[in-house]
Structure formats: C-alpha cells, structure tokens
Amino acid sequence: MKIAMLARNAGLFSHRRLKEAAEARGHELDIINTLRCYMNIASRRPEIYYNGEKLPKYDAVIPRIGASVTFYGLAVLRQFEMMGVYPLNESVAIGRSRDKLRSMQILAREGIGLPVTTFAHDPKQTEEVLRLAGGAPLVIKLLEGTQGIGVVLADTDRSAKSVIEAFRGANVNILVQEFIKESGGTDIRALVVGGKVVAAMKRSGAEGEFRSNLHRGGSATTIKISPEERSTAIRAAKAMGLNMCGVDMLRANHGPVVMEVNSSPGLEGVEKATGIDIAGLAIEFLAKEAKPGKTKTRGKG
C-alpha cells in the first residue's frame, strides 16, 4: 500500500512512528509538507502538485494537519478525497473537531456527558453566562486554542467577568465552562482507532497547574478506564466521524464528561505510558479499510 502523510514536520515523534510502522508492515509512506501542495481543481480531473511535480496515486492519506493551517490543510485533504484516496480521518470530521463550539453542540446532540458550557456574543450577557455556567470557579477557553493555550481558570465571578470582557474587547470568541474540581487537575485521554479504545492514559498537571496537557509540563501514566468511560470515548469518536482520535475526559461526580476530541493526537505520551503500538494499529486499520473511492462523509453537520 502506498500512503501519503500530510505533515509539516517529518521529525516529530508521532510522524516518525507512523512512518516506521508503515514500513515495518511492508507499506510505502511519503511525508508531504501540507503547505507546499498546490491543486488543480478541474472537473473530473482533480490533481495535486508538490514541489513542481504531480503527485502519484496513493491508496491512503494520513492527515496530521496543524491547528494553525487547518483551512489550507483541509482543502488539500479534500482534494485527496476527490481523487478517491482513503483518509485515516475525513476532512469534514476534522473540521468538526477543530471547531470547539460545533463539536460541543454535536456531542450534546448525541447525549454525551459534557461540562456545563455557555456561549454568547453580547458582552451585556456576561453575568447571565456566569450564572448559567454555575458561577466561579470557571474555565474560559478560546475557541481556536490548542494544547492548553488560551485556557484560563477564573477563581471568582469578578475575575471571570474581567477575563470575559477582555476577550470580548479583543473580538475573540470564547466558551465558558464549569470547573470540574473533583478531577483534581487530572484528565483521561482515551485513544480510539476504528471504533475501539486501544489505549488510555491519565494526564496530571504540573505543580500548581490546572491544565493537564503534556505540552504544559504534565505527566502521563497508564490507567484502566471504566466501561462508561470506554463507551463515552467510542460514542464521542463516532459522533465526530473520526476513525482515529484522542478523547479527553474528566471524572466528574456525575460520570465522565468530554472536554475535547482531538483528531491528530500525539503518540509519544500515550505510547510511552502504555507501551502500546498505536502507530501500528493505525496503519493496520488503514490497510484493512482503504479502498479506492470508499471515502464518504459520515454523520450530519
């Protein structure tokens, strides 16, 4: 099988592991810099060019599209899909997951556990938004933030109001969520591949840090998740339409709540914490599922 991987940095751990896993199983994998692709959007003859040459025919494509290049990356991925190349994750599904508000609305529609989440445009509604979210402490998130960037914990209603008004003044869209205190600065990331949870780890924040992201100095250990947590992760992945993703959950008093569904999860933390060959499982899923023209958009908007 001939596989293309859309990634800007071939040296990242996750990208090296996927390439190694593919080649160990007898496949060929080319890492293609997403931003160096350009497209001929011709009727019935879609083409992609790279470094001055037309790309050859691929059987599958692995999108590892950075958040900062989502718009162009999804355009390139759609072009692969138009050419009948099977994607590990489809463009529509990635687009859903990158829009925090849309993804929350989709998960809510499916009845999946979420923290109380509020959203408003008019700054005059700030006090009502704080009331709906249950009052301080509250988590305030930029809609476009990743890896814990743009996430603020407000300890009092007064500080929450100040943060919200500051973001509003900068014309930035935000979500306001209840703070799940009982999670104790830890969360669970469940890795889903092909509709199954293949690995799970507990991430703990650095000392004095409420965010548990590994990029923020957090640590990871393997964990056994409950049947309810496993079911929640699988349902969240299915709702998004993602074949491979990381589902981030908190253990609330009323059960697991989903914080985010990540369509390009990093492999280093979870592989080192669990010892499971996630990259190999992803390649094996592709080898089993990739068929010419099999791409289809799953789920609704």
UniProtKB/TrEMBL annotation:
GO terms for molecular function: ATP binding; metal ion binding; ribosomal S6-glutamic acid ligase activity. Binds 2 magnesium or manganese ions per subunit. Keywords: ATP-binding, Ligase, Magnesium, Manganese, Metal-binding, Nucleotide-binding, Protein biosynthesis, Ribonucleoprotein, Ribosomal protein. It is an enzyme of class 6 (ligase). It holds the Pfam family RimK. In the C-terminal section; belongs to the RimK family. Belongs to the RimK family. This is Probable alpha-L-glutamate ligase. The lineage of its organism: Bacteria, Pseudomonadati, Pseudomonadota, Alphaproteobacteria, Hyphomicrobiales.
